[in-house]
Design a protein that fits this description.
18 helices, homodimer, alpha/beta, globular
């Protein structure tokens, strides 16, 4: 009985819960009775050799038979089930590593063994959301020290794939804290690879934003590369821009980041472990970090930036990794487009040296590329900028980018939205503020990131003079319904733009 | 649109989630589209003047129509819905007080205003479980100081009903950390009231245990008293034993305790605020705390007990409350029965001075009653014990208990289980350890607390000689199915008793 298991017919509910494993069972089902299960119990589901811990909700209607277990899509996928399969359900075993989470809450510090247990249970899906939130809060309210950050980073990096590239210098870049439209990655990789660096870049898709780098890149070439394909691309061209989700680097990070976003918590220790564990797992040896500092950015003051810079350097160097941290302006979106295809068009404009290419995106990409070239020793200190500029201006970076896309499966043109609608400036004056959160919402309502061509095009930047009735923003959509939702939202929220008379 | 609302037909799913508000909607429903909602979004449900914040899960099957919202029982009840009602659904507004939770995670301390906002949002159901877990962890990993505990206590007490009794001394008692079978309350109230104290006691029902004090008392008299009835009983008899859930004292405590139990976190600050906020709200002026100390009890060392005692006294005195804290033995269950009716029988045996009454329960009740009598000034220091003993031995306490039961709605005999089965000792020797967790599980599988007569009767105490084949435990059940579940569990888990040869 205890430790025993009870078969139930698995029902696929197509219940979407993000990645939360949920099982619905009837209160009068024999498993609930014999295992003494109550609503919100944690239960172990087993199908053959696969298992997952899920949260139980009980139901007292006729949606399910008493011999059925209804599974959320996340639980169904993780168990790899087919229609008609039988699963076993029992009380979930004690999650041993939670004792270490509690120990930290009671003021104890954690060693490598403790972090190993916690991260392994997190990756295996044994933590409920409240456990994840508790771990995150416990590592924040009582801040991690440098030793703990180092242990956490090492265990996170070890918990998934580890890539290696057979070259002494592997370059990488990362932007801390998403700034809308900040798609420097494809440009930086193209410049770096065209100058001889090895830069096997993995990027994320949007979680809550209208576009991730992987979403934008996907409108230009396939990004869903397995490790073998990624390796072939990098061996041929020196660089790639792949979706990180396909290679499972530091999978604990993906789980923790979801909870941190929901809580809007991202303290120093977690930020460092998150960024560096991904880079270590990706095999990077030389990493440039773009650190936007500004009143509404993730890092708000120079003092905070100093401390973060110092701690990142200490932790990174304990893994033999060299870092350079650049402070950049975090006050407004980067480039013109928000949404996968619109951001890709900005990237193409910069790479093709088109006259209307967004200057801010070009400048940011050059600064990061210059740092990467200097850090890797390809350019002497102070001369990285000139080398990066030359690579871009001569078309060498653009040629490299096209070859990378071809190697990833073929370059393509980003799609164009069939429907566009301009929103006019309500009055004349100077544009003084753009609400990034509302702009992102507008792009999402228009259909981004699922509709690749959907999004928002900003026609003015902070400080620009705008004229009453002239277009300020263009909304792009693929379907009339989405366009309507976006326009209705925009009509009620034109205060997202502040225009000073 | 933003701030707008969208009507959907409410469907009662009879989905049991403890008290978690959940709403299911189809991905293709117009509200998900127009509000840009994704799975696990927090949404505001409104029906007339009532509203509740719920977690959204999306479903892609035909269980729901695209114009329907399926509600968990908790959400349905809180909105007070009827079949056919229409509700409005929109993005949940920002929960302002979460900024203070985050502030504390970043190392800031909280003042009365901050705790007021947090507690008010907790009581209104605006916090998701991850927010509750974060608040609990943030107040633990970076421990609350005495000022913060005092503010938190005050705000928790203010967030629900506040009782007052029109007398200068109102006595109360509380046992810290549940010890199975520790049902001193009915005995202490009877002794105290029979000696002239005012003791309007509220108790809880079982949440995860086989019986709460209110469950046991309910087999003897009604406990579901409203404030008016409670007042009438106390005015007539000086004391009552009521279910606290009916009077809504410190409702935030009930919410926080649920999460603390799930996390197995109960740090000092939270413990103090939990206990004292309930007592302040109940109008208590003189409180005796029973603090079991032992290697597996909540408080494990004398040093921890000293610190807790000091801090409780400081916080209590800032509310003008006098406290006395008793350290008691926390090494094994108290009394003989585990389960509502079986525990009530132990209580009756002590009150009736029956020769087979459990001595440990009797002694504990006398010690607590003595302290209450001395603290209230009814007995001089050192003479409380004699007065309590006299009240019990002369039958005065028993007479008072019967009158209290009559005033609460009528005394009754606890039910007797139709099915019992003895479990024999597997071999002879000295009983050296009882696994409280497994004993509780056994009692719950037998049907407690829902089946009032169900539970477990322990026939031996630690240190007793037991004989192979002689009964060690009797399982009581109301239905054959439950008896079978309990016996199957017992057969596989007789290691819950350690018998040294």
């Amino acid at each position: 009985m205890n430790g025993g298991a009870h078969p139930l017919h698995a029902r696929r509910l197509r219940l979407l819960t993000q990645d939360e494993a949920i099982v619905l069972m009837r209160t009068d089902c024999h498993v609930c009775k014999s295992e003494g299960l109550a609503a919100r119990a944690r239960v172990l589901l087993r199908a053959g050799s696969r298992e997952v811990i899920a949260t139980l909700y009980q139901i007292e209607n006729d949606w399910l038979g008493a011999d059925e277990a209804g599974l959320s899509e996340a639980a169904w996928q993780r168990l790899g089930l087919n229609i008609g399969d039988v699963i076993e359900v029992q009380n979930a075993p004690t999650v041993e590593s939670l004792a270490d989470v509690r120990r930290r809450i009671y003021g104890g510090r954690l060693d490598a063994r403790a972090f190993r247990g916690i991260i392994s249970d997190v990756v295996a899906g044994r933590y409920a959301d409240i456990h994840l939130a508790t771990f995150v809060a416990a590592c924040s309210a009582f801040p991690l020290n440098v030793d703990e950050i180092t242990h956490l980073t090492a265990e996170m990096a070890d918990a998934g794939e580890r890539l290696s590239w057979g070259v002494p210098v592997v370059s990488d870049k990362h932007s801390v804290g998403g700034l809308p439209g900040n798609r420097t990655t494809p440009i930086v990789v193209a410049i770096a690879a065209s100058c001889g660096l090895t830069m096997p870049k993995t990027s994320s898709r949007a979680i809550t934003s209208p576009s991730g780098t992987a979403d934008a890149m996907e409108t230009l070439a396939p990004v869903d590369l397995d490790v073998a394909t990624m390796r072939r691309v990098v061996e041929m061209e020196g660089g790639c821009i792949a979706w990180g989700g396909a290679v499972r680097l530091s999978p604990a990070d993906d789980v923790l980041i979801r909870v941190e976003r929901a809580l809007e918590i991202d303290t120093e220790g977690q930020l460092i472990a998150s960024v560096l564990s991904k880079k270590i797992a990706a095999g990077a040896t030389h990493v440039v970090l773009d650190l936007p500092v500004g009143p509404t950015a993730k890092v708000r003051t120079d003092i905070a930036a100093d401390k973060l810079t110092e701690h990142i350097s200490i932790v990174a160097s304990s893994f033999g990794m060299k870092t350079r941290i650049l402070r950049t302006d975090g006050s407004q979106p980067v480039g013109r487009g928000i949404g996968p295809a619109l951001e890709a068009r900005d990237v193409l404009a910069v790479l093709r040296c088109e006259p209307q290419a967004p200057k801010d995106l070009r400048t940011r990409a050059l600064v990061i590329a210059a740092a990467a070239l200097e850090l890797a020793g390809v350019a002497p200190e102070g001369l990285g900028g000139a080398l990066a500029e030359e690579a871009l201006a001569t078309g060498r970076a653009w040629a490299k980018f096209q070859r990378i896309c071809a190697a990833q499966g073929g370059m393509r043109e980003p799609p164009v939205a069939p429907l566009t609608r301009a929103l006019a400036a309500p009055h004349s004056g100077i544009l003084t503020h753009v609400n990034n959160r509302k702009i992102s919402r507008l792009a999402k309502l228009a259909g981004a990131p699922d509709d690749k061509a959907a999004g928002v095009e900003l026609l003015a930047r902070l400080g620009d003079q705008v004229t009453a009735g002239a277009p300020l923003v263009i909304v792009h959509a693929e379907a009339p319904g989405e366009l309507d939702y976006a326009l209705a939202f925009a009509a009620a929220n034109m205060d997202m733009f502040e225009i000073e008379v």
